Every structure is written in C-alpha cells, then in structure tokens.
Amino acid sequence: MKFFIDTGNLAQIKEANDLGILDGVTTNPSLMAKEGIKGEEAIAKHYKTICEMVDGDISAEVLSTDFATIVEEGKKLAAIHPNIVVKVPMIKDGVKAIKWFTDNGIRTNCTLVFSAGQAILAAKAGASYVSPFVGRIDDSGWDGMQLIGQIRQIYDIQGFKTEILAASIRSALHIIQAAEMGADVCTCPLDSILGLLKHPLTDIGLAKFLEDAKKM
Ligand code: G3P
C-alpha cells in the first residue's frame, strides 16, 4: 500500500518525506485554505513546491463544477508538473471531465466518493485514483472501511485498474484497516502516520536496552 500525506502544510510534508516512506501528497481546497494559499498564481506555486519536495503523485483539486471549466482548470494544473494528478469531484460534469482527461492523457483522482456506485462510475471514466472518504462515512454512523472492501471486491471482479485511495483517514487504526481491506493507497494526516510508531512495549524495551547498554 502506498502512503500519501493529506495536507498542504510544507513542514508536515517534509517531516513525512524525511521518514522515507512517502509516496505522494493529496490536497483539497480546505487544506490549501488552511495554509493561507490564495489566488491562482500562489496556488500553482504551492503545488510546484510540493512536486519538487516529493517524488510521487500530487493531487491538485479543481475548484469549478461545470465540464468546460473543470477541463480548462485541470489542463492548467496538469501543466504545473508531470506528477500532478487532477482531483475532480464525483458529480455528473466531473465524471464527464474525468473521461475527457483520461482520453487526453491527464491523470485524475475522483474525490468525494461515498458509495460503490460512485466508485464504479469513476473507474468507468478511467480515473487513475478513486477517493472514498472513510472518516466522513464513519462520522455519519456508517462503516467507511466496509466501503473500501466493497470497492476492492468490485474492482477485482471487473478488472478495473483505478487505484483505491482510502481518504479522510483519522487514525493509525484506519491505516491498518485500509491495508487489510486492500486499499492501493492510504492518504493520511501526519499524526496518523506517526501513530503507527507508537507501542508502550517498544518504549519500555528500549529504555531497558539503553540502561543495560551502560553495563556493556
Ligand atoms: O482530501 C480528502 C480527505 O482526505 C478529507 O479528509 O478529514 O476532511 O474528512 P477529512
């Protein structure tokens, strides 16, 4: 399973990248706004900086919702760097735009996916990635991980090549479960990635080893 970091924060991207386990980055308008990135030029510059920091796919989301503007915006985003993947919402014009991008050699990440039916449409349109929002499904009282498993099963039976990118990850446990469910990619906040490190027996064991090392 590939590890992406879900943030627009450069310090966090650097920290995850320095660990040596980072395969890419996903962003969204909320995450970009959180970093105070405003205006077309600043947005493009920020994406370019991320692309130069991380050797992997970088998702950049379109801000429009009609076919023609999504295509124009996506073409501009894709021109920033070869690693840019255009993130497109799961709406009617979005599906149409994903198909257009597929036919024109531009890679896409279909976002805001909450059902198996939406995931089938994304795959049919040729999306490179599909992003089911696990945490937001959990928030509404459903089981987000079950959706990852269901999409995995459908894609395998049907031979769809779209990669399943588990998004809206909220914990280290979510990452483990996404791996169990066969997600191709998990995009995570830095805290969830670092959460995987934690085990009290590791800390106790290391303290003992260090203490005994003084007697060596
Ligand atoms: O980038 C999409 C997704 O990961 C959002 O996560 O935590 O806002 O539901 P969250």
Unique bound compounds: SN-glycerol-3-phosphate
What value does the Rg take, in angstroms?
A: 19 Å
**Low-pLDDT residue spans:** none
Order of helices and strands: EHEHHEHEHEHEHHEHEHH
Summarize model confidence as the mean pLDDT: 98
Taken from the alpha-carbon principal axes, the silhouette is globular
Distinctive features:
eight-stranded parallel beta barrel; alpha/beta; globular; 216 residues; single chain; binds SN-glycerol-3-phosphate
Q: What would a concise description of this structure say?
A:
The protein is of the alpha/beta class and 216 residues long. It has helices at residues 10-18, 29-34, 40-53, 67-80, 92-103, 116-124, 134-139, 144-158, 172-180, 190-195, 200-213, and strands spanning 2-6, 24-26, 57-61, 84-89, 108-113, 129-132, 163-166, 185-188. Strand 1, helix 1 (10-18) and strand 2 (24-26) form a beta-alpha-beta unit.
Please tell me about this protein's structure.
53% of the residues lie in helices and 17% in strands. It has 11 helices and 8 strands. The chain has helices spanning 10-18, 29-34, 40-53, 67-80, 92-103, 116-124, 134-139, 144-158, 172-180, 190-195, 200-213, and strands spanning 2-6, 24-26, 57-61, 84-89, 108-113, 129-132, 163-166, 185-188. An 8-stranded parallel barrel has the order 1-2-3-4-5-6-7-8, surrounded by 7 helices. β7, α9 and β8 (185-188) form a beta-alpha-beta unit. The longest helix has 15 residues, at 144-158. The chain is globular, with a radius of gyration of 19 Å. Residues 6, 26, 28, 133, 135-136, 167-168, 187 line the site of SN-glycerol-3-phosphate (G3P).
